[in-house]
Write a structure and sequence with these properties.
The protein is an all-alpha fold. The chain has two domains: 123 residues, no CATH class; 84 residues, Orthogonal Bundle (Arc Repressor Mutant, subunit A), CATH 1.10.10.10. It contains eleven helices and two strands; from the N terminus they run H-H-H-H-H-H-E-E-H-H-H-H-H. The protein has a two-stranded antiparallel ribbon with strand order 1-2. Strand 1 and strand 2 form a beta hairpin. Helix 2 crosses helix 5, helix 7 crosses helix 9 and helix 9 packs across helix 11. The longest helix is centred in the first third of the chain and has 21 residues. The chain is globular, with a radius of gyration of 19 Å. 32% of the residues are buried. The C terminus is likely disordered.
Length: 226
Amino acid sequence: MRDRESDGRELSANPVELRKLLLRAAAADLAAVGQLFDMHRNRLRRMIRVRIDHRLQGRLDPSDVLQEAFLEFARALPTYTKRPEVPFYLWLRCIAGRKLATLHRRHLGTHKRDPGREISIHRGGLPEASSVPLADQLIGKFTTPSRALRRAEERARLHHALTEMDELDREVLALRHFEQLSNKETALVLEMTEAAASVRYMRALRRLKTQMMSQPGGAGGAPDDA
């Protein structure tokens, strides 16, 4: 049986059906509003997890962000349906990302970080991807069962390598590996061509491999799907 997230991806790929559901939701069909949001809830949760400030772990739950994002989504939906300038999921993702940024400021203060370190997409800023959850996501692809006892060491090395990488390279890896965006979605988020996004992704993988190999005991490779 297909899960709801799979249905959401398929619906997004079918503009006619998506438009019908959007119009129903914009006309105050509460069931349609909830269906649209729930279809992408897991994808949004992944995005939030990789961007929550490490100081808020245990204090701020992704569900809190999703709740606030849903309220904003329901309010802004009629306006979006009149002029959908970006794909639906990326619009929804941007709402959730901005809510996360607001909660960061609320919990940590307005001077938590330089605003320039927020990735600007579609005229809105999202907190940058954190190397900690990204390392957790990638670690399985850098280890084999025979090296299970070295997992913690590999994780630390991977975390360090990600931290040393260019911010945009780390962002590309987060979008593709953690958020599981397609190359087309990644290109739209970063406002570049699909060809440029693909090149940037492969370059980021090579640079990550180089960073891993340059560390003491470096024997890690690139992810399996590189």
